[in-house]
Batch of 2 targets.
Target 1
Amino acid sequence: MQWLSLLFSLSAFIGTVSAVQDSKDQTIVQIVYNYDPNQIAAVIAGSLYLLTGACLSVRAFSNRAWWALCLPLGSINVAMGFFIRIMVPKNPDNLMLFLSQQLLILLSPAAFLAFNYIVYGRLVANCVDPGYSWIPARKVTTWFVISDLITSLIQTVGGGLQTSKSVSTEKLGTNLLLAGLALQTISFAFFTFLSLHVYKRIRADGISPLQETWGPIVPTLLFSSAIFMVCFVYRTIEYAQGSGGYLMTHELWLYLLDALPLFIGICVYVPFWPSKYLVAKEDLPMLNT
C-alpha cells in the first residue's frame, strides 16, 4: 500500500500550504460540510466495516487466499476513516484529522474495486472460455488498477486543495475531485459492462451458471459491481453540486448512498467467498490461488 501513503502525504502537503496561506474566518468543517459529523453514525459505520473486515480476513487466511487481502484491508481502512471522523466535530479546524478521515473514506473503496477485478480475471481465466472477455483476463486487473490509481491521485490532490479557505482554491479542489470521481465512475462502469458481457456470452453458449461450481460467483460479482456503481454515481453528483450542494451538506446521504452500498457490496463475499467456487477446469490454464 505504498501508493496510498504517497497519496496521503501529497494531499496533506497541499492542504497545509493552502490553509496556512488563507484566512481563519471559517473552520475546514464549515467550509466543506456545513454541518458537524454525527458521531454516533460514525461509530456504527466504523464498527460494521471493522467487523466485516475481520470476517473477510478470516475467510482470506483460512483459504490462504493472499490475493484477496485487498478486500478486508480496504474495509478496515474505511472503518478507520469513520473512527477518525468521530473526532472531527471537536477538532473542526484540524487539517490532518479532516484529511485522514476524508481520504480513507473516499479512497479505500478502490481496494473493493481491485478485488472485483481480480475475481473477474480468475473467473474468466480459470473457469470459462477466456475468449468471452474483450480484454485478456490476465490484463484486466492491471489495466483497471492503474486507472484507479490515476483517478485516486487526482482525487487526493483535489481533497488537499479542498481544505483551503480561499474560495478559488477550494473550488479548484472540488473540480479536481469531481474530475477524478467522474473518470473512476466511467472506468468502473466499463468494467461492470465487461462483466455483464461475459455473463451474456456464457448464457449464449447454453451454459447455465447455476449448474457449475463457479456459478454463484457470477451473480455475486455482478451484484457487487452494480451496487458499487450507486456509490460512485452519488459521489459524482455530490461533487458536481459543489461544497454548498444539497448532498454534501446533508450527512444522511453519505451513509445511505455511499457507505451503505459499499458495505452491502463487500458483505456479499462473506457467504460467497470466491476461493470456494473458482475451481479451474482441467483444460484451462490456472492462475495461482
Target 2
Amino acid sequence: MMAKKPPKPAPRKIFQERLKITALPLYFEGFLLVKRSEYQEYKHYWTELRGTTLFFYADKKSTIYVDKLDIIDLTCLTDQNSTEKNCAKFTLVLPKEEVQLKLSVPQHVSLLPGQVIRLHEVLEREKKRRSETEQMLSSSMENEKEPTEDYVDVLNPMPACFYTVSRKEATEMLEKNPSLGNMILRPGSDSRNYSITIRQEIDMPRIKHYKVMSIGKNYTIELEKPVTLPNLFSVIDYFVTETRGNLRPFIYSSDETLDSLEFSM
C-alpha cells in the first residue's frame, strides 16, 4: 500500500501566516529574480509588496521571509532593455542602493511591467492612507477619555494587530488565544500615545508592556536604549525582527467572529 502524500499547505493559511508576521496589507505578489548590492548574482524569490515593503520568500509556500526591502524612499524606477526572451528587467533606485529586478516568467507573474511602473502611485497612495488614518485616530483619541471596545479591520492602514482595548483586555486576549499571536498594539493610557502588550513563554508565560510615544511624525519605543521609528508599521516590524519572529502580531482570522474568541466582550 502506497503511503499517502502529506497535505499541501492551504493557500489561505499561508496568506494568514504571512499577514500575522508582516502586519501589512498586500498589494502585489509574484515570482521575481532579485539582485541587491550585496548579492553576487540574481536570486529567485516569491515576492510580495505589503505596505511599502517588498518581502522575499524562498518559494511560494514559505511563510517566513528571507529578506525584505523598504521602498518608501524610492527615487526612480528604470526600465532596462533585455536581450533575454520572455524577460523584463528593471532597476529600483533607492537612496542607499540600486536593486535589479528581472521577470523571467511573465505569464505566471502578478508584478507585470505595467504594474511595476505604477509602484510610485502605490507608494503615494499608501503614504496618504497612513497619514489620514493616523490623523483620524489622533483626533478620535483626543475626544475620548477612555478607549472604546471597537476593533479595527485587519486590512486597515493601521497595523493589523491594533485594537482599541485596555491593558487588562489585551492581556486576556493574549492569554486566552495564544494561537492567534502574542503581540498587541493598543492605545496608551493617556489616549495620545500607544502601548505594546506581548506574551512570551521562555521559562513560563510572561506578560510585558512597552510604551510607544508619539513624537512629531515619529514613534519612540521606551526601552533601556530608546528606539525611534517613522511609523507604527515599523514599530511592529522592529519587535518581530528583533525576536527573530518569536513575537507575532495578534490577528484573528476573517473566518472567525469576535464571539468565537475566548475573551469576553
